[in-house]
C-alpha cells in the first residue's frame, strides 16, 4: 500500500511547503464536513488557518496516532482555539480525511512531474527502468508520515480504504500506460497482467527502501529488482 502511504516519521517542513504552494487544493477540501455551520475559507487568513490545522493534525497523527489525538490537541498545535477548529472541521476524522486526500493529490502531482523528466525515447531500457524506480522512491520523500496509522485506518474505515484503493488503481493504469509505450519490444503477452506484476514489484521495493528493515543494504534489493523487471519485460 506504499503508493498512498508513507512512514511513521514525518517531514513537516516539506509538507508545509507543499501545502503553502497549493492553497487552492486546501481550500477545496472538506467535503467530509456535512455541518452547514462549517466555514469554507475564502480570505487568505482563513485559508492559512485551515492549513495550520492540517499541518498540526498531520504531525500529531504521525507521532501519536489517530485514536490518541483529539481536537483540542490539534487546535493547540495549530495555534487556534478549539472553537476556531470547529469552524473549519466537524471532528478529527474530517481533518484526517483531508490530510489523506492532500497526500494522494500531492503524490499524483509529484509522480507526474518526475516522470515528465524521463526520456522514454531512449533505447537503453535498463536506464529507463532505473530512472522510473528512482522517481518512485523520490516521490515518497515529501509528506513522509502517517504510514502506520493509514495501515490501521485502511482496515477500519471504508472511506479511507476506498481512497487508497482508487489511488492504487490509477497507479496501476499509469504503469500500463508506460508499458504500452514499449509494446512492440515487450516480451510479455498479457499487458494487463504484466502491469500488475510490475506495479506490485515496484510497490514492494519502495516499501523496502523507504520503510522496512530487511537485514541487507536496500541498494542491493533495488538493483536486483531493476534486473528482475528488465529481464521479465525485455529478455524472456
Question: What does the model show?
Answer:
The structure is a single chain. With 236 residues, the protein is an all-alpha fold. It has 2 domains: 2-95, Homeodomain-like (Arc Repressor Mutant, subunit A, Orthogonal Bundle); 107-144 and 158-235, Tetracycline Repressor, domain 2. The protein contains 11 helices and no strands. It is elongated. The relative contact order is 0.15.
Distance from N terminus to C terminus (CA atoms, Å) equals: 29 Å
Low-pLDDT stretches are 4-14
CATH superfamily of the largest domain: Tetracycline Repressor, domain 2
Secondary structure: number of strands? 0
Q: State the CATH topology of the largest domain.
A: Tetracycline Repressor, domain 2
How would you summarize the topology of this molecule?
Blueprint: H1 12-21, H2 23-27, H3 44-64, H4 71-78, H5 82-88, H6 92-116, H7 125-138, H8 147-156, H9 158-180, H10 191-210, H11 218-235
Helix pairs in contact: 1-3, 3-4, 3-6, 6-9, 7-11, 8-9, 9-10, 10-11
Task: Summarize the entry for a quick read.
With 236 residues, this protein is mostly helical. Helix content is 68%, strand content 0%. The protein has 11 helices and no strands.
Essential attributes:
236 residues; Arc Repressor Mutant, subunit A; Tetracycline Repressor, domain 2; elongated
Amino acid at each position: 500500500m506504499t503508493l498512498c502511504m508513507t512512514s511513521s516519521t514525518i517531514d513537516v517542513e516539506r509538507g508545509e511547503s507543499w501545502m503553502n504552494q497549493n492553497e487552492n487544493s486546501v481550500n477545496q477540501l472538506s467535503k467530509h464536513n456535512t455541518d452547514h455551520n462549517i466555514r469554507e475559507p475564502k480570505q487568505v487568513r482563513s485559508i492559512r488557518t485551515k492549513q495550520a490545522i492540517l499541518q498540526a493534525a498531520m504531525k500529531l497523527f504521525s507521532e501519536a496516532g489517530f485514536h490518541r489525538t483529539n481536537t483540542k490537541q490539534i487546535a493547540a498545535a495549530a495555534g487556534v482555539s478549539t472553537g476556531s477548529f470547529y469552524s473549519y472541521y466537524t471532528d478529527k476524522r474530517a481533518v484526517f480525511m483531508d490530510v489523506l486526500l492532500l497526500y494522494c493529490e500531492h503524490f499524483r502531482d509529484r509522480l507526474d512531474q518526475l516522470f515528465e523528466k524521463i526520456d522514454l525515447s531512449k533505447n537503453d531500457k535498463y536506464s529507463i527502468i532505473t530512472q522510473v524506480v528512482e522517481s518512485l522512491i523520490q516521490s515518497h520523500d515529501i509528506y513522509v508520515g502517517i504510514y502506520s496509522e493509514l495501515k490501521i485506518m485502511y482496515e477500519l474505515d471504508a472511506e479511507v480504504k476506498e481512497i487508497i484503493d482508487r489511488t492504487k488503481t490509477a497507479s496501476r493504469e499509469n504503469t500500463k500506460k508506460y508499458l504500452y509505450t514499449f509494446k512492440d519490444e515487450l516480451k510479455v503477452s498479457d499487458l494487463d497482467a504484466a502491469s500488475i506484476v510490475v506495479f506490485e514489484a515496484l510497490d514492494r521495493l519502495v516499501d523496502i527502501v523507504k520503510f522496512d528493515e530487511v537485514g541487507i543494504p536496500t541498494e542491493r534489493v533495488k538493483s536486483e529488482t531493476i534486473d528482475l523487471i528488465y529481464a521479465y519485460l525485455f529478455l524472456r
